[in-house]
Inverse folding.
């Protein structure tokens, strides 16, 4: 405890700026105000007008400086939630642990939070030093000190167009260095999710992690297991959907964090074509992210775990089990292994299973079952998955394309496609038909039925 207290104190000493913040002009930081959300500017203007200070902060400033498009815009201010809310027509106070205000402009929400005080020894922590409750408002300087990395602690004032930099975050950002504010070990202990964030920003910005911030990662990786499961799932999803998913996985693996969140990864990568399959799936995800499309968590996890499911499936089939039963058992065992470390929400698990089970059904479908398959809510995702498998040379690409065309067709074209296919089947010599027996081995060619 005493050691922690001293560490906290030293951490805060380091975190304290030595000579006040740097005020960086737009010529040096390079943010073009036209790329800044006009709603975020509006929030700052209104608060300024009322005599408060207000800045755009965090990921948006970081991304604007390096020329990426920000996901969203957050504002930090010295006004309290109760002072902020009445200033806007559509604003609501949210959050229990730390209240903040959502200011709503049509589709866009500007998350507006009051400067927060950094971690202090008086705060509630668990036995590992993880902060359980922090609800203290603070000064601008304190708000900067409680942020995670120097490059995330930059404040943009849209009125003067200056960036306020308390922790030399701008030079770090320009050099692409992810550096923890304060004592890294203490800060990871306070919130182990910061370990995942460090890796994500390194991947996303093609940055390195400063040695002092990197060194504790291997040693402290296991602390991630104390993070509540839903938060962990959200963070892993952020990692996988940041546009650099494979890079993130490699970063996780390099420090051993994957063992605590994606325990199947080592084994998957050892399977023949396992790494390539994951790479292909994640490259598709990255492409969708860049195109601004939505990402389905079920599809992602279905892909991450598929090679193991497939392996188990074949093993169980080889023991003489019926393929459909075998696939169900394989899915159960792989999902159980995964959820011991990282719980996947039940609805996603159900969707993953559907995507997998349909892979087997594609192989055996006839006219009647094709129509039933089409009606499945996950049909489209399963067909996408089949395409992914075709790309990985696991199934025939012509057949995968037939299913994709079917998914894209309207009902009357579907009827024609299925009829033409049935006719083709009927015209085939009996030997060819026999080859499509329902008890074929799994993961062979998905047949165009
Ligand atoms: P992105 O939105 O691109 O994922 P971000 O940096 O904006 O990245 P958010 O989770 O939106 O991430 O958080 C906004 C800001 O809040 C961060 O930039 C950082 O300053 C601060 N922050 C977020 N999470 C933490 C944390 N766990 N510890 C300390 N500060 C944090
Ligand atoms: Mg953000």
């Amino acid at each position: 405890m005493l050691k922690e207290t001293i560490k906290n104190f030293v951490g805060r000493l380091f975190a304290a700026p030595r000579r006040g913040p740097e005020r960086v002009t737009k010529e040096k930081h390079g943010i073009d105000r036209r790329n800044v959300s006009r709603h975020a500017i509006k929030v700052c203007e209104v608060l300024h007008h009322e005599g408060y200070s207000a800045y755009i902060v965090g990921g948006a400033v970081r991304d604007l400086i390096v020329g990426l498009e920000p996901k969203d815009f957050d504002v930090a201010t010295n006004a309290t939630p109760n002072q902020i809310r009445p200033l806007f027509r559509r604003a609501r106070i949210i959050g229990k642990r730390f209240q903040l205000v959502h200011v709503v402009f049509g589709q866009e929400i500007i998350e507006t939070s009051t400067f927060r005080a950094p971690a202090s020894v008086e705060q509630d922590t668990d036995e590992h030093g993880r902060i359980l409750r922090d609800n203290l408002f603070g000064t601008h300087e304190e708000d900067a000190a409680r942020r995670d990395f120097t490059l995330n602690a930059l404040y943009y004032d849209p009125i003067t167009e200056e960036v306020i930099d308390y922790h030399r975050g701008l030079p770090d950002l320009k050099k692409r260095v992810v550096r923890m504010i304060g004592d890294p070990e203490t800060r990871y202990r306070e919130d182990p999710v910061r370990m995942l964030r460090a890796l994500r920003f390194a991947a996303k910005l093609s940055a390195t992690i400063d040695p002092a911030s990197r060194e504790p990662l291997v040693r402290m990786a296991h602390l991630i297991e104390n993070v509540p499961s839903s938060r962990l799932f959200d963070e892993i999803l952020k990692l996988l959907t940041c546009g650099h998913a494979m890079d993130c996985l490699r970063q996780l693996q390099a420090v051993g964090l994957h063992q605590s969140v994606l325990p199947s990864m080592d084994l998957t990568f050892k399977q023949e074509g396992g790494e390539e399959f994951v790479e292909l799936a994640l490259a598709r995800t990255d492409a969708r992210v860049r195109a601004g499309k939505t990402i389905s968590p079920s599809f992602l996890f279905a892909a991450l775990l598929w090679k193991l499911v497939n392996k188990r499936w074949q093993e169980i089939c080889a023991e003489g089990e019926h393929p459909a039963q075998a696939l169900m058992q394989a899915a159960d065992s792989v999902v159980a292994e995964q959820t011991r470390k990282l719980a996947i929400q039940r609805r996603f698990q159900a969707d993953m299973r559907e995507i997998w089970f349909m892979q087997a059904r594609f192989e055996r479908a006839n006219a009647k079952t094709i129509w039933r398959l089409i009606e499945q809510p996950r049909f489209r995702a399963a067909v996408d998955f089949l395409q992914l498998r075709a790309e990985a040379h696991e199934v025939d690409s012509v057949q995968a394309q037939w299913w994709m065309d079917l998914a894209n067709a309207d009902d009357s074209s579907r009827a024609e496609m299925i009829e033409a296919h049935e006719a083709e089947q009927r015209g085939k010599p009996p030997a060819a038909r026999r080859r499509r027996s329902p008890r074929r081995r799994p993961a062979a060619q998905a047949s165009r039925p």
